[in-house]
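User: Can you write out an input/output pair for a complex, sequences first and structure second?

Assistant: Here is one pair. Inputs:
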Amino acid sequence: MKDTSLVVAGMATLAAGTYAFRLSGQVLRARISFPPRVTRLLEAAAVILLAALVASTALTEGHGFSGFARPAGVLVAGVLAWRKAPFLVVVLAAAAVTALLRLAGVS
Amino acid sequence: MSSIRRTLERAVLADIGLTCLAVFFIGLSYGAIAVASGLPLWVPAVQSLLVLAGASEFLFVGIVAAGGSPFAAALAGLLVNSRHLPYGLALPPGVTGRGWHRLFGTHVMNDESVVFALAQEDLRAKRAAYWACGLGVLICWPGGAVLGALIGSAVHDTNAFGLDAMFPAVILALIVKDLRDSRILRAALAGAAVALAATPFLPAGLPVLVGLIAVLLLVREPAGAADEQQAPVREGAR
C-alpha cells in the first residue's frame, strides 16, 4: 500500500467532504429555493456519473477490457432490474451469472 | 425503535429490511475486494463507518489499489457523492431530526434512506422510514465490510464468486428507474461511452468524471419539460 498517512488523509477528505454535501443540501433547503430546472440537472448529472461508473466497473480493469464474465453478469442484472425484479434477485443474479461463466472457463 | 414500528406499515419495514440485507451483501463484497486488492482491513472498516456511501468507497479503494493518488481518489469519490446535496434539498426539514439529532441524522443520508423517506406520505412516516433505513444501513454496511474483509483475507480469489459483478449491478438497479426517461437514458449512454473511450488514456477514476460531459445533452430543455417532470430527486429502484 501507499504511504499510510496519505491514505488516511484521502479517507478523511472523502469522509468530511461527503458529510459537507449531506449537510449543505439540508441547510440550503431551509434558506433558498433552487429553480427546479437546476435541481433536475444536478440530479441528471448524478445519474450520468453513476451510469459511467457502471460501464467502467463492468467493462474495464485497469486500462483494458475486463473480460466477458463480469459484463455478462451485469447485463443480466440490468435486464432483471429493467423488468422490475426485486433488488436482491438483481444483485445475486449478477454474481451468480459471473461466477458460473468463470466456472465454465469464460474469463 | 418501537415508535418506528408503530408508525410504519409492515410492508415498508419488510422492504427496508430486505434493502439492508442487500447492503450487507454488497458490504461483504466491498470488504473482500478491498483486502484482495492489497489494502489493510482497517481501510474498508473505517471508510464504511465514516463515509457511509458505497459507490464512492469502491471507487476510492479501486483507485488507491491501482496505484492512484489517495487525494485524487478522494476527489473522484466526492464527485460521486455530490448527489447527496440534491438529496438534502429534496428532504423536507425535520426528516433528518432537529438540533444535535440532525448532525447525526445527516450522516445516515444515503440512496436507500432518501428513497424510502420520499416514498412515504406524511412527515412522521417519512422521518420513521428515513431513520429505520439509515440506521439499518449504518449497521449493515460496516458490518458487511468488516466481515467481508475477514473472509476476503482467507479467500484469495473473490472473483470466483462473481463478487466484482455485484457493485455495477447494485448501481444499475438504483438508477434504472431514472433511465426510463429517454432523455436521461440517452445522456447516460453517452456518458458511459465517453468514459469507456477515455479509459485507455486517462488515470483511474478520471474517465468516469469525463463522462459527466454528457450532461450538456440535457442543458437545452425542450419547452414544457418543466411541467412534465416535477420530482426534484430521483426515486431509486426497487
